[in-house]
Automatic annotation (TrEMBL):
Protein name, as recorded: Phosphoglycerate mutase-like protein AT74H
Segments of skewed composition (Low complexity): 55-65
Catalytic residues (UniProt): 79, 167
Residues binding substrate, per UniProt: 78-85, 139, 178
Region (Disordered): 47-71
Source taxon at top rank: Eukaryota
InterPro entries (UniProt xref): His_Pase_superF_clade-1, His_PPase_superfam, PGM-Related
Gene3D superfamilies associated with the record: Phosphoglycerate mutase-like
Membrane spanning stretches: none
Length: 339
């Protein structure tokens, strides 16, 4: 069966639809001249004239075209200093999503943008671009606006506001004294599992970050960050978010334990941490950061060993020498497995 998309809307469509006679939906999938052949099981039959380099015109897993290059880096940026960072009473009268940056925070964001640009330009490539994901909170949107001053339009391949990377919800307007008690209780209960009344736990954030991670991986696989026909390996993703959300993302990506997560330290305002593509194609923090920086962030010996493995491992490889196995099972000491 052949389903043909035409440029002239049927007469029974509403008037607002008939005002666009020059729009051809087929152009969103190819050259605008071919028809789409739909098989009986609902998949588009082999017709790779429409974005073949994206691998989206055939059933997943059956495309003969190679996947587009993975982005060179995934750069995580914590928002600049906000009004809530310097005056906690702001949370009692201003909704958390509407809290703005301070003047210092705006300067931090702009300086961060120039640091990122310098990092990218040090690669020596001329075809580099950036793509942004940003939390919908005012302080992250403002951070992106000032960070973006370092990039001309031709260097920005796109941006997307992503609610799943928003700040942990602490429960609407915050009572200062009650929040102090809640945070003390969180230390007793555990930073990962404690849920703030009417708000979220870090475990709740983990669940929505997991959904975002899957979207991000799919976007990487189809090459969403470049126009059709471009295959540059020099795209850099920049995720502008919040301290806890970024730590949870790294926990999810690298499969860190709850104990390892709770040992991490928050990033400073306007600071960044970089996952860079290693020699085998996987992302490693050790490609950009030195051991001192990663220990300051909270990585343990086991986590550092894994990051070194990530530097050289190929995509799809599993780390069968995972050091956490030896440290978790104490009885291995009797077998001489731990020196």
């Amino acid at each position: 069966m052949v389903a043909t998309l035409t440029s002239t809307p049927p007469s029974f469509l509403p008037l607002w639809r008939r005002k666009l006679p020059t729009f051809n939906p087929t152009q969103c999938l190819g050259t605008g001249k071919e028809a789409l052949e739909i098989s009986s099981n609902g998949y588009i039959k082999t017709n790779t004239t429409g974005f073949p380099e994206k691998g989206i015109s055939t059933r997943p897993g059956t495309s003969s075209t190679p996947r587009p290059p993975r982005p060179r880096r995934i750069i995580f940026v914590r928002h600049g200093e906000s009004e809530g960072n310097v005056d906690e009473t702001v949370y009692t009268r201003v909704p958390d999503p509407k809290i703005d940056l301070t003047e210092k925070g705006r300067a931090e964001a702009e300086e961060c943008g120039w640091r990122i640009r310098e990092m990218i330009e040090n690669d020596g490539a001329n075809d580099w671009k950036v793509y942004f994901y940003v939390s919908p909170y005012k302080r992250t949107l403002e951070t992106l606006r000032h960070l973006g001053l370092a990039f001309e339009r031709s260097r920005i391949s796109g941006m997307r506001e992503e609610p799943r990377i928003r700040e942990q919800d602490f429960g609407n307007f915050q009572d200062r004294e009650k929040m102090r008690l809640d945070k003390a209780l969180r230390l007793r209960y555990g930073r990962f599992f404690y849920r703030f009344p009417n708000g979220e736990s870090a475990a709740d954030v983990y669940d929505r970050i997991t959904g975002f991670r899957e979207t991000l991986k799919a976007d990487i696989d189809i090459g969403r960050f470049q126009p059709p026909g471009e295959q540059s390996p020099n795209v850099n993703l920049i995720i502008v978010s919040h301290g806890l959300a970024l730590r949870v993302f790294l926990m999810r990506w690298y499969k860190w334990t709850v104990e390892q997560f709770e040992g991490l330290n928050n990033m400073g305002n306007g600071n960044l941490i970089v996952m860079q593509k290693g020699y085998g194609g996987r992302y490693s923090l050790s490609m950009h950061h030195n051991e001192e920086e990663l220990r300051e962030f909270g990585l343990t010996d086991e986590m550092l060993i894994d990051q070194e493995w990530q530097k050289t491992a190929r995509i799809g490889e599993l780390n069968y020498d995972c050091p956490m196995v030896n440290s978790f099972f104490a009885h291995f000491e009797d077998e001489g497995c731990i020196t």
